[in-house]
Amino acid sequence: MEKLLFKLQEFEGPLDLLLHLIAKHKLNIYDIEISALLEQYLGAIEQMQRQDMEVASEFLEMAARLVHIKTVSLLPRHEEEQEELKRELSGQLLEYQAVKEIARELFLQNRSGDIFVRAPQPLPVDMLYTRSHPPVDLQKAYDAVLGKLGRKLPPPVTAFSGIVHRRVVSVSSRILFILRRLYEKSSLRFHSLFERGEDRSELVATFLGVLELAKSGRVRISDDNEQITLNTTHKRR
């Protein structure tokens, strides 16, 4: 059957009580005055009993041990036995005192209940990636990286080809073109001038050229806007 332990007042056992009495009455733990210690110890036991507290058997056993040491000291020619018993008791008290001190320091170091941990230790870092992934995950990761890089890159040159590389057609060049056609044929269908237009810049320049020629009187446009004719009576300034 497991032995029951009792805590009386603030003392956890007879050795704890003895250390308290030695400290309280400033007794020498290395050369204990057994008579004074026994008197104080029996007084503490009596006080416990007056408070209707059940005194554990180890407290009574320590009282009997102190009585025995005192009895031996009173007998003649038993000085060596007396010193041996006192040294044994002092050794137990010193050992118990050291254990209490260590327990107190551990309690102060405790930060999480009953778990005691050491300080973090530096660990070597292994930079080798050892995890295994299915090919599908690797393909998705690769595509995601390409997508992010693509968003950070500037637009390609082809995105500006319609603006930067657009051919610029001057109005004067289209005026010469219209006049050459009219010198070959004095009259042309208006829409025939736009049939071979390659881009919008050329069409706009051709239309502006017709307006400029009509404004200067070098060509005439029919009332239905279908025919354009060279004005042979126009005189150059």
UniProtKB/TrEMBL annotation:
InterPro entries tied to this protein: ScpA (IPR003768)
Q: What is this protein called?
A: Segregation and condensation protein A
| Keywords, ordered alphabetically | Chromosome partition
What species was this sequence derived from?
Answer: Zongyangia hominis
Q: Name one Pfam family in it.
A: SMC_ScpA
The UniProt entry's GO biological process terms, in alphabetical order, are: chromosome segregation
- Where does the source fall among the domains of life? Bacteria
